[in-house]
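seq/struct pair 1
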Amino acid sequence: MDSPLPPLQKGWQVIKSGVPKNVLKFRTDLPVPTDIPKGHVLVKVLAAALNPIGYKLMAMPNFMVKRPVIAEHDLAGEIVIANGTEFHVGDEVFGLVPAELSMKTGWGSMQEYAIVPAEALVLKPKNIDFTTAAGVALAGQTAYDALFVIGKLEEGQRVFINGGSSSVGTLAIQLAKEKGVRVDCSASGRNTDYVKSFGAEQVFDYTKKPLYEQLLEANISPPYNVFFDCIDATANLFVHSKKYLAPNGIFVSTGPNVHSLSALPIVLWTMTRIYWPTLLGGVHRQFKIFLFKSEKTKLQALADLIAEGKLKPQVDSVFSFEDLPKAYERIMSGRATGKIVVQVL
């Protein structure tokens, strides 16, 4: 290191259950970690990105998650303590603090110095900056897993991506096209050209009428092999999917979009409709809720595609560290086209 670590750092903690503006606390007296567990490193966080899982976890009751907890997971920065791992001090990296680890330890990315498992980091490609790299790990692996691990997409098949202009959606379009898959998606009219620039072919404007009605009227042929809903608008789309999803097709969802506990009754009703037995009129199609697991091989694959210019992560907006609550307002608006990133240092 060029200089010794400071004893204290700034960071954002989630201190209770609720919506971001009510549960976030900005701290200037957090200790900088010095006791780093084996297999982990200390990262000087230069940029951190927001994800829906961030505010979803905030909505969970205190008995389900550890609090206080440092907000968020995605980050990019420099190694300051390598701790006997494959990394070296000064390495530029990106990755994430896994959610399951955060829930147990209280660790997170929205602080100046973060403990991160070495397995959840890779070297940052030289052709992107820290701001862009900060938003790759969670969204990129989500898109990859939904399409190829769960969906098992192959060259020549078809996929529909609901939320094509979202951060996950734009990466999913690019990953699918790279594999030779035909991509259709949803987007607002103002974002049609935007998603087509990544390779989407037929784009459905969800602002005109309910998306499932448009898909029914389109008489999709051949039907989609995978329907990836990455913005949590699942119920009606799945209930009507028999008309546009192949008999052996898979409907993949990132899960219910819970902003607060008051949304739970709606979520339960949605799940009832989805899992209603086929013998009683339910939908005879596979439904999978995405369960995220970070893996170094997937992170490295994403980094390689970025380095080769085949994957171009998008940044919607950048906020100062002190403006994290405003950044959450942006992500929860549902209008972001790319990642919302916070400049930490």
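seq/struct pair 2
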Amino acid sequence: MSTMIAHRITGFGGPEVLAEHRVDVPQVGPGQLLVKVAYCGVCRHDLLTRAGAFPRALVPVTLGHQVSGWVAATGPDVRDFAVGDRVMTMIFTGCGRCRRCAAGEEALCEEQTPQFLGEDRDGGYAEYVVVEARTSLTVPATMPLAEAAIMTCTLGTAYHAVVGRGGVQAGDLVVVTGASGGVGVHAIEVLAMLGARAVGVVSSGASVGPVRQAGAVDVIVSPDRRFSGELRRRYGQADVVLDVVGEPTLNESCHAVRPGGRVVVIGNVNGRHARIPPAYLILKEIALVGTKSCSIAEMNEVLSLVAGGSLRARVDTVVPLAQCRAVHERMEAGENLGRIVLEVAGEQR
């Protein structure tokens, strides 16, 4: 049996638990694809998985839920893909049978807890990965594979949050916390495309430039994450707040939104529980909305917008797979901006 290199965790902990292993190349089953990994994005969720924030995570496991590459083999009954096709992956895999899965919304599977790639099943910090054909998409010929790798987690997540869950309209004042991160900066981009007035919230002045470049009309630098007062001074209250940070900013987001407005919770960077006084929701009639991941249909819409030049995936740094532990260390130290991608096979098959 052939073997491959995979960077895996065998227990939870700091970046030191992420180590290189030589393992068997996984076997492809019915309805599945064996993908030769070209690139795999890194996001903060990977760090939380590695640290044990999600105790149900499979251990040992190969991290990585943002994968692009080529089909190396197909399982029985796969009809829509052939060996050599350029593909990218969705994040979640459901039962494949319920009404949500049938609609391409496997993140909301009604029959089982959806499997998270790189957490509940082996992911893309490896030379090969097995994924379901139904949760894979063809990468357009003009799209670099490094950009395709992050498309679902960044633009897909942002598009679903802004359009599908936030109901944002042209002219709306929308605040984005964690605006310099991979999801945040892409949310700014989607908002600008829709004609909304996007205000980014960041913790460092070094992040202001990239967030403005993505289309923000203004950026609030708030190291202590208490930004609602400054927002009110400059603009009043927001129609919508997209909270990418979660527990550290969620109370402040509820302060920042207008009566009758919406707070859309996209992420939770520290994995901790947040406490929201019910009075916020009752007295201001705030809608507190969760968002998880985009559907196949939404992802295809995003791919069309990218192909048409309305949106673009923003890859900030590409590093070799062997440096994944160093990437985790940098991210935990707060030393990176935007989205980092691990190069495995690269663009050349």
